[in-house]
Amino acid sequence: MDDAVLQRIGKALGMIPSGCGILTVTDGDFRTGMLTSWIQQAGFDPPAVSIAVKKGRPIEPLIDRTGRFVLNLIGEDPRAMFRHFGRGFEPDEDAFAGLKISTQDGGVALEDAIAILSCRVAGKFDAGDHWLYVGRVENATTRDGARSYVHLRKSGLTY
What we know:
alpha+beta, Pnp Oxidase, Chain A, two-stranded antiparallel ribbon, 3 helices
């Protein structure tokens, strides 16, 4: 593809707003989480969300094995969650060290999240360098008066 066309595509894709959240999974006694920035509502009936996960991330086989995940939405000031989860975690690291959490069906709920959605995987689709998961929302909580962080990129071709 011509470089100029690719740059235009990247600029246009970067203008698509998305939410940011912390995607969590529990599998027996093991639990982990990751920062995710490609989140969208995907359906009304049943309620559903879509989340993109880069191929090879340690959380991927856990989602596949359990068929569940919890999405913790980040509020207007994302700095603390970006600092904590932005670097990623090795599979044997405690992703939640120092955070106030509780366990939910399928994952971990963060006390600082403005909304928490417990989901069952409805589908997994190959999107090139990412997997696109669609999750049916089975339960949710929200913090009254909180506002979501909205994420835009300079280019939709890189994080």
